[in-house]
Amino acid sequence: MEHFLKVQKPCPFRTGEIVDELVTQGGKVNPKDKNTRYLLQDFRGLAKGAEGGDEAPEDASDADDPSTWPVPLPVRGRSVPQFAAPIATTDDEAAVKSDDCTGGGAARVVLAKTQTTIRKWIDNDAQKKLDIAWAEAMFRAGIAFNFLNFNTTQALQNTYLEVANAKPKVKLSTYKHMRTVMLDYIFLKVQKAINPFTACWEKTGCTFITDGATDRKNRPVMNFLAAGQKGAVLVTTVYMIGRKKNAAALTKLWEQVMREIGLKRINAIYTDNAEVNKKSAQILERRTDRDVARIPWVPCGAHCCSLLLKDLSSLPWVKDTVKTANTIVKFIRNHHATHGLMMSIDDSLSLLRPTEVRFGSVYQMLQRLTDREEVLNEMVDGGCGAKWCALRWSGEKLQKKANLVYYTVRSESWWAIVRKIVAIMESVYSLLKRMDREGVSPTNLVEFDDLIARKLANVVLAKKEREDVMDKVKDHVQMMRQPVHAAAFLLDPRRRDPGWLSDPDSALVQNAMRFFCRQIGAGWDSKPHMDM
After folding, report:
1. CA distances from 164 to 125, 159, 175 (A)
2. pLDDT tens digits for 85-139?
3. d(C-alpha 325, C-alpha 209), whole Å
């Protein structure tokens, strides 16, 4: 009690509620302690006296005695809501009610509830000391409140309870012990945990993966991962503040991290299709160190497919339809009246915005739109058509968008174009899903453009439209296809056929030979190349 009511250096975490509880239990406030008196008066609401609230005591002796001050109402958020239970009554009981009440079939009995108390916290000295110690330590070190929600924090509390009565007594770890011995111990513990992921690198190797990103403070970082047969491991994260990001600087950084992993362990370098990454890969390919030069660069297949879908949606005869579809989706999703009306018909699926997914967002938006075609028609022109027409919009701009949605959804020719675009993008999106999942990637990238052409044969397209689509497909397949893909295609047991080697001058064979020569460090037209 003295900890909170003493004049000199009282508890910095005390509140008016704590002081009020202590005074209620018999605590005395020093008349000269203005700070404590102000906390108590502010909590009990004496400051409201001048504004029409409770009058402050006129007698000075009463004002000095905190026990005579009025007790405040329950604090907002701490009072327990009162709720009543209906009790059936007879007509006779209702007839004898007071004049202030009206007769009815039920009477409401208000249950008395008490204000939430902090008595348990005040009476438990051990809990109070622990909470104060934790608060002072966390606030001094700037530790987030979410730290208390971690499983490791609960494990720390359990450990303290276990060793509380241990002999000999335990002491708090020192600064030097924590930054030397314990840091090495935790490092070895983490290293032991990831050993199962890295043990297979000696036999099957790993893929070196890197990509740029930003942290929570919007600082640029470069993440480096190594993915093996057992899974991926984060090797290191490099902050790029003040660093150069040209090809030469990135190449030097890549090589430094690759040597930490082990050059002989790395099977390939895997990045997105940024131009700086391509140049960095070309620099590594020209290195005199054979262990570095042999590592091939493989662009992200999922990123290539996503760019292909984006380019297909930008075709002149496609982009207007995509823009209209985007307007319809945003208009329906952004207004509660329209979205609620649609979900009242069928709430199994909602429309998808293009920004809600990362890869293939345009395809997913159009595919979901075609799936909801009947629901949208029912909303604007079916049983709910009257409700749609009854909607009123605040401005002319919104009314024009509502009219656009109304006439577009009722247009069968527009839906035919949407279905055609979805059919074109479907094969590309299926490959994207195969690329963006765990496991072995498909090995048929060499003939992927032919596969797209065969699937498009079932789609009704004009000659110019078919040529536009295939030009985009061939450009991105060429971007994605590398010599390592040609070698993987020829070595795939499911497609191993001597007929592929009947034409040594074909692009497939030549690219595979280029990859094999790079692995053994042989030049083109050299004796190893000719023997191969």
Report:
1. 16, 8, 21
2. 444 444 444 444 444 444 444 445 555 566 666 666 667 777 778 788 888 888 8
3. 36
> At a CB cut-off of 8 Å and minimum separation 6, what does 126 contact?
none
- Please check whether residue 154 is in contact with residue 57, taking contact to mean a CB–CB distance below 8 angstroms: no
Closest of 62, 59, 65, 9 to residue 37, by C-alpha: 65
C-alpha span between 469 and 316 (Å, rounded) = 11
Return d(Cα 421, Cα 425) in angstroms, integer.
6
Other CB atoms closer than 10 Å to residue 274's CB: what's the count? Answer: 15
The region, left, alpha or beta by phi > 0 then psi within -120 to 50, assigned to residue 271 is: beta
CB atoms near residue 412 (< 10 Å): 8
pLDDT tens for each residue of 477-522: 888 878 888 888 788 787 777 777 777 778 788 888 888 888 877 7
Which two structure tokens, joined as six digits, stand for 445? 């990238």
Q: Label residue 415 exposed, middle or buried (CB < 10 Å: 0-12, 13-18, 19+).
A: middle
Longest CA–CA separation in the chain, Å = 116
Closest listed residue to residue 352, CA positions, set 377, 371, 379: 371
Residues 117/122/124/127 CA torsion (nearest 10 deg): 100
Place of tokens 């600064």: 175
d(CA 202, CA 200): 5
CB contact set of 388 (below 8 Å; sequence gap of 6+): 341, 379, 380, 406
Q: Three-class SS of residue 85?
A: strand
> Percentage helix, strand, coil, to 5, in the chain?
60, 10, 35
Query: Is pLDDT of 206 > 90?
Result: yes
CB-based contacts of 405: which residues, under 8 Å, 6+ apart?
327, 328, 331, 332, 338, 380
| Alpha-carbon span 128 to 22, nearest angstrom | 14
Pairing assessment for the beta strands 232-239 and 220-227 based on DSSP bridges = antiparallel
Cα 222 to Cα 217, 286, 521: the distances in Å are: 14, 24, 30
CB 435 within 8 A of CB 306: no
Q: Which two tokens stand for residue 152?
A: 């490791």
Q: Is pLDDT larger for residue 9 or for residue 138?
A: 138
Helices 336-345, 373-381: inter-axial angle, 10-degree rounding: 110
C-alpha to C-alpha distance for 409 and 329, rounded to whole angstroms = 11
